[in-house]
Design a protein that fits this description.
348 residues, mainly beta, Neuraminidase, 14% helix
């Protein structure tokens, strides 16, 4: 009898150890290209779901995603989704304000795609009842700006692809992965370019996400996909001190963004935890387009070795958010695969 008890204890301990080694827990499966994540008051996690063509884009709400069986519902449906180069263009970044309103940025632009009268490139505000208000056409504005500044990136401009969004103090900030800019959208709907992120060695920097740091500055992650494939981990996190920006001074627009942390594989989402830890999703970690991962570094030491949280077991991860429970949530399967999911990391 004693021997049987010992065996049972060993089996249970082994099962617990195996569970602890699992890098993540699936929170919401079966999503078509899930991308941006944002937490709103009351423990609600919102997810931008780009869709798979037509009007399949949507925004979903996951109530209390740390529960064993969280409730999920559609908040907005029918958003445009356009196929392009093996993935889909549509709703990408989202950010919640203190009142629970969701601000969502649609990728691309009417000017760049030729799809007139669509939501592409538009900044949308969704209130708590699911009603949509179109705030600004960021895509077309940025497309024109890139055409006017084609010398900055002769091989890539004109282009625009609004991708990351962050709401702060009444203003809304957008990272445009096509024009390589940080935009501010004022309450009156006017748009200004605050920062330009310089090109890498081969191709453009491609900023994808914005996170507010413990010091109040913005930290913007870049994809740097082509350079990373050729040279390895070429993505950079830039720091932008908003107090030093001046959209009317071209010299400041070109210089205000400074490298803060380097040596990342292509960054597709980023966030800070309450303790100042910086988290970034890496779309891939090798030139064969595999090994998606989430890594972390301390705010006080951005040159520290990056700690992998998922053992490179993710598949094209996108948005990252830190919940009120302290856990890290990630959109897994954000592109190139039929279905993705939102997962909660089992360590942080």
């Amino acid at each position: 009898m004693k021997r049987i008890c010992v065996v049972l204890v060993v089996i249970v301990a082994f099962a617990i150890a195996l569970q602890a080694q699992d890098p993540f827990t699936v929170v919401a499966p079966g999503l078509q290209s899930p991308r941006g994540l944002t937490f709103a008051p009351g423990g609600r996690l919102y997810v931008a779901v780009t869709g798979n063509g037509g009007n399949t884009g949507k925004i979903i709400e996951i109530r209390y995603p740390w529960n064993a069986s969280p409730a999920t519902r559609d908040v907005v449906t029918g958003l445009i989704s356009v196929g392009a180069e093996g993935e889909f263009l549509g709703v990408d970044g989202i950010s919640a304000d203190s009142n629970g309103n969701i601000h969502a940025i649609m990728s691309a632009s009417a000017s760049g795609t030729g799809i007139e009268g669509s939501q592409l490139g538009h900044l949308l505000k969704v209130n708590t009842s699911g009603e949509i208000n179109d705030l600004a056409d960021v895509g077309d504005f940025d497309y024109q700006w890139s055409a006017d500044h084609q010398s900055y990136a002769p091989h890539d401009f004109p282009d625009s692809n609004p991708y990351g969004v962050l709401v702060q103090a009444g203003n809304i900030y957008v990272a445009d992965a096509g024009t390589n800019t940080l935009d501010v959208i004022r309450p009156n709907g006017s748009i200004q370019i605050l920062a330009y992120f310089p090109n890498n060695i081969i191709a453009d920097s491609t900023p994808t996400c914005i996170a507010k740091g413990p010091d109040g500055a913005f930290y913007v992650g870049t994809l740097a996909l082509v350079d990373s494939i050729v040279f390895g981990h070429a993505a950079i996190v830039y720091r932008v001190d908003l107090s030093q920006t001046d959209p009317n001074d071209p010299a400041k627009v070109l210089s205000v963004a400074t490298p803060w942390a380097t040596g990342f594989w292509p960054i597709n989402g980023c966030a800070f935890g309450s303790d100042g830890t910086f988290y970034a999703s890496q779309l891939i970690t090798n030139s064969n387009f595999g090994g998606g991962d989430v890594v972390k570094i301390p705010f006080a030491n951005p040159s520290a070795a990056k700690v992998s949280l998922t053992n490179q077991s993710l598949l094209f991860p996108a948005g990252v958010a830190v919940g009120p429970d302290g856990a890290v949530y990630v959109s897994n399967g954000g592109a190139f695969v039929p279905f993705g999911e939102v997962v909660r990391l089992n360590n942080k």
